[in-house]
Each structure stands twice: as structure tokens, then as C-alpha cells.
Amino acid sequence: MKNPFTPTYGSVPPLFAGRREIIRQIIFGIENGPGDPNRSTVITGARGTGKTALLHQIAVEALEYGFISVYANSNSVLLDEILRRLEKEASEFIERENKAKISEVNISGFGIKIEYSDQKKSWEENLENIIEQLTAMNIGVLFEIDEVRGGDEQIRRFASLFQTFITARKNVCLIMAGLPHNIDNLFKDKVISFIRRSRKQELGLIDMSEVFYTLRETIETEGKTIDADALKIMTEETAGFPYLIQLIGYEVWQVSGDKKNIRRKDAEDGIRNAQRYIVSSVIELTLNDLSDKDREFLVAVSQLDTPADMSLIAQKLNVDSRYISQYRLRLIKEGVITSVKRGFVDFVLPQFRKYLRELSE
Ligand SMILES: Nc1ncnc2c1ncn2[C@@H]1O[C@H](COP(=O)(O)OP(=O)(O)OP(=O)(O)O)[C@@H](O)[C@H]1O
Ligand SMILES: [Mg+2]
Asked: Does residue 15 fall inside a structural domain?
């Protein structure tokens, strides 16, 4: 039996949990037409909250509304990549149109060469040309740029061209995704102030009832059943974190082997197996993105009773509480800790506490 879970970064899960409201708003923007504020959206969330998967899901749904998508990672060849992918996606429509034109023209005895990417033209001109032709054919373009960060020359150049498309009411939409601190820097960029006016969508945790349903449906669709108590402990262990839905689902499925029904014991063993991978595929990745001071703060949180008292964290680190509140705010924004009640914080994923405690022992 095939394991249906997808604990790999960037892969779209068989059943997409939650996020309906965000998708609905973006699709509304696409349907509503040029000028809709959702046509420029920025998606942010911690590692493993499902930014890339959401971009792919939106691309699939946008296709039904006549939008082709161009997905690219923000890196040093971003602009070339966007043009190349757009050419590839658009070629089917543009060539068809051009062939018709060419045969018409040939009848009247004139030769015509229609080009949609010209080496002698600037990148902007080439892109504009394609958008122009697609808009004329009533085909929209959804640009999706993943892993964006601030101060990037290529993003700036793309964004200023995109702004001219918006002004000219071209049929385009832009969704960017990135980690919270990178999106913060992007919003601070004075050169591309229009990004600051984009819609911001923050990916948090998935509702527990939705996780419960997603795990069960994914299992049952692939031909197994699961006992209610097994499902319950799996759901709790995910803490609503998208990557963990896939990882825990995957490991429990593996443990269950050829058995048709998944029991509590399988769930317990699978959850235990998942722990190892949580460290390398979530915790360490997340800690790598943070500063030394952030990590010191987190170690202090892990050593206190849960939820951790902010004044005790300050005492432990030997600093005053005003100073510490900056770290608190940043780490909340980064999706690593949450504010439980006034003056107390806790980890979003309980597995962080265990890992950091063991590390500092
Ligand atoms: N809504 C969802 N429901 C179920 N599983 C999901 C959902 N979103 C993402 N996942 C799963 O979570 C994992 C991480 O998703 P993804 O790679 O999109 O995260 P990300 O936010 O882009 O992470 P990073 O910041 O490292 O790029 C994948 O295994 C994916 O299949
Ligand atoms: Mg990603």
C-alpha cells in the first residue's frame, strides 16, 4: 500500500488542511479583476507552516479562472527564471495565436515573424510583450515568488515592473512568500513601497478539528482505517503544525505495515519514530535562522516551567525586562513561541522545549 503522506518541503499534500479563507480571498481577487487589493499578496509563516505548498495549491485553483502561473524562487537568476517560465507557460497560447496570424498574412503574400522574446530587447520589454499578448487573449498571469527577502535587486526590478502592470490594469496577480523576518525586511524596503501596501497573510497553526479530519481522510482514502484513540494522540502530537501532520501521518502509516486498521500502539510507535526527524527537519532548521541571542532566550524558556514567566527569563539571562521584550516580540512573530497570558510565553511546538533542554544539559 502506498504511503499517502508527504513529509517533504514544498510538496502539496493529498488533502490540504485549512487555509480556505486565504485561498478564497486570493481567488476572489483573481475573479474580481485588476484593481483588487488581493492581487498583490504576501504570505508569511515559520518553516514548515506550508507557504510553498499553499503557493502550489493556489496555482492549481487559479488555473480554473484562466490564470497561468509562474513560480520562481528568489535568487540571483530570478528575473531570467521568471521570463523563461512565463515563455514556457505562454508558448502554447501565443504560438497558436501566431500560427493563425501567420497563415492569414501568408495568404495575402506578406511574411511575418512574430517573436515573443528578443535578445536585443530588455528583460522588461520582453516580459511586457508577453503580458500584453496574454491580456489580449484574456489569459491572466499569476506570479509566485517564494523565499523572498528584503534588499534584493532582482525583486526590486520585478516589483517595479509589476507595479506598471497594475497601473495599466493588466490581468496579473503577484503572491510572494517568505519567513517573517525576511518579509519584515522586504516591507522596510523604501525602493519598492508598493509591496508595503500588499495584503499580508500570516500562516499559523491549523485547527485541531481540521487536523483530525485531514489525518483520518488521508488514511481512509488510501484504504486503511484508524481507531479513534490512535487518531486523537496523533492529532495532539502535531500541535496543528502542517509539517507535523505529514511527518506523524507518514511514520504511523509506516509502522502499521500491511495491517488494514491503525491502532493506538501503532500511533505511539510512529510518533516515537517521528521525533528523530522533527529535530533535523523542523527544530534545527528553525534555530539556524535565528541569532545567538534569540537562541539564548529560547534555552532560558526551555529551562523554566511551562508556560515560562518573562520576569524569570530576564533573571536567568541577567538583563532587564524591557530588553527581553524585544526578543519576545520577534520570536512570536517568527512563529517559534506564543504569548500564553500576560507575562508568560510558551513554545509553539512542545518538541522545542525537550530538544533545547537536552541540549543545555
Ligand atoms: N495545509 C496543509 N495541510 C497539510 N499539510 C500541509 C499543509 N501545508 C503544508 N503541508 C505539508 O507541510 C510540509 C511543509 O510545507 P512547505 O514546504 O510548504 O512549508 P514552507 O512554509 O514553505 O517551509 P519553508 O519555510 O522551509 O520553505 C510539507 O510536507 C507539506 O506537504
Ligand atoms: Mg517553502
From this structure: no
Interval 55-82: pLDDT, tens: 999 999 999 999 999 999 998 899 999 9
Same domain, 196 and 345: no
Listed residues 269, 287, 305: the one ending a domain: 287
Within 13 Å of residue 275, how many CA atoms lie on the same side as its CB? 12
Work out the pLDDT band at 275, boundaries 50, 70, 90: very high
Cα separation, 240 vs 253, in Å, equals 19
- Centroid of ligand 2 to alpha carbon of 332 (angstroms): 19
CB 19 within 8 A of CB 54: yes
Q: Is 20 in the pocket of ligand 1 (CB under 6 A)?
A: no
| Domain hosting residue 301, numbered range | 290-360
What is the residue with the minimal CA distance to atom 24 of ligand 1? 47
Same domain for 88 and 194, yes or no, is yes
Structural contact between residues 31 and 219, judged by C-beta atoms closer than 8 angstroms: no
In a domain, 176, yes or no: yes
- Residue 19 CB–ligand 1 contact under 6 Å: yes
- DSSP assigned state of 207: P
Quick: pLDDT tens for 205-247. 999 999 999 999 999 999 999 999 999 999 999 999 999 999 9
Q: What is the dihedral of CA 334, 337, 343, 344, to 10 degrees?
A: 180
